[in-house]
Amino acid sequence: MTQEFQLDRLPALSRSTVDRDDLLRDDAARLAELWRTAELLVVDNRGRVELREGGAGLRLRAAVEHSPEPGDTAVLLGTQDGRSYWAVPAEQELEHEDWQDLRMTGALLDDTDAGLLTTAVGLLTWHRHSGFCARCGASTKPERAGWARRCTGCGREEYPRTDPAVICLVHDGADQVILARQPIWPPERYSVLAGFVETGESLEACVVREVAEEVGVKVREVRYLGSQPWPFPRSLMVGFAALADPGATLTPAEGEIEEANWVHRDQVRAAIAAGGEIPGLRLPPETSIARRMLEGWAAMRG
Predict the structure, then answer these.
(1) DSSP characters for 123-154?
(2) What are the CA-CA distances from residue 213 to residues 33, 119, 219, 220, 228 (Å)?
(3) How much is the pLDDT for 56?
(4) Is the CB of residue 188 less than 8 Å from the CB of residue 180?
(5) Of 74, 77, 106, 103, which is closest to residue 90 (Cα–Cα)?
(6) Residue 3: its pLDDT value, please?
(7) Residue 219 contacts residue 242 (beta carbons within 8 Å)
(8) Other C-beta atoms lying within 10 Å of the C-beta of residue 70
(9) Burial of 277 (0-12, 13-18, 19+ CB in 10 A)
(10) What is the DSSP string of 60-96?
(11) Any idea which UniProt keywords this protein has (predicted)?
(12) Buried b (16+ CB within 10 A) or exposed e, 107-137
């Protein structure tokens, strides 16, 4: 029987502590009351936020210093301990070392800040790209504390979209894992395989199809591991493990996969022990679920 592994811990961007409280989004009086003591996160168009000195968490501001009440651009992130948290888009992009994006900081933030920033980036990106109705073309306006938009023409209501994608660690049931790299990645960066779910397709079927398309390998025993929001711009990464025949020939998809290899567990362990990279192998960053999957697999006794 093949030994199974799990994620070694919760993916960085899956962590959150605030209460989203759907009913609160329609309570204008309560929202106005909470705004008086609310904390506000400012996010620029590149998804960057200001960090506290030394990078120790998000720099939150008193909401009332921004405006006397929530405006159309403010989105409610949630509540915790009687306090509400909101986000607004920055008026302009700021070039400063204290402003960092989610990819760089996600794994360094605590559970509360990680959840706030992940939600803020996803919501504000959706608003920025959803100013017009997909049905009639009229302009749309925000509603429900930033969790919906309504068309000013036909009245159609729209909610934030999430595009599911699968990400799969394919191994041979022993000590080998398939790692591949895309042409656009930094030199020597490798990761597990991933792809978007197509219309009418199950997650498991997507795993089988994507692995076959990307490296020409047939997999079996597809098994769910966990998931992570990935708001770049609106994905949900759904993690799986799957088995392939030991030493199966890898045929990288032309133009999509530059190189794919079977990599031994000891090499992955060495990269992890060295902080994420050794000569010839750079692992995915700590922010990604791919890293959590690889560390969980590497920790399994083999």
Answers:
(1) HHHHHHT-SB-TTT--BEEEEGGGTEEEETTT
(2) 53, 32, 12, 15, 23
(3) 77
(4) no
(5) 74
(6) 63
(7) yes
(8) 23
(9) middle
(10) -EEHHHH-SS--TT-EEEEEETTEEEEEEE-SS----
(11) Hydrolase, Magnesium, Metal-binding, NAD
(12) bbbeebbbbbbbbbbbbbbbbeebeebeeee
CA distance 289 to 276: 14
β partners of residue 149: 142, 158
Nearest one of 60, 114, 51, 54 to 87, comparing CA atoms: 60
Please tell me the distance from the alpha carbon of residue 189 to that of residue 37, in angstroms, as a whole number: 44
User: DSSP readout, 204-227?
Assistant: HHHHHHHHHHHH----EEEEEEEE
Do the Cβ atoms of 257 and 203 come closer than 8 Å? no
Tokens of 59: 């720099």
CATH number attached to the domain at 14-129: 3.90.79
In whole angstroms, give the CA distance from residue 5 to residue 23. Answer: 38
DSSP label at 161?
-
Report the CATH architecture of 162-299.
Alpha-Beta Complex (3.90)
Residues of the chain with CATH 3.90.79.10: 162-299
Q: How far is CA 242 from the centre of its chain?
A: 22
How buried is 79 (Cβ within 10 angstroms: 0-12 exposed, 13-18 middle, 19+ buried)? middle
Amino acid at 76: L
Average pLDDT, 10 consecutive residues per value, the chain (302 residues): 81 97 97 97 94 86 96 97 96 74 94 98 96 97 98 97 97 97 96 98 98 98 98 96 97 97 98 98 97 96 70
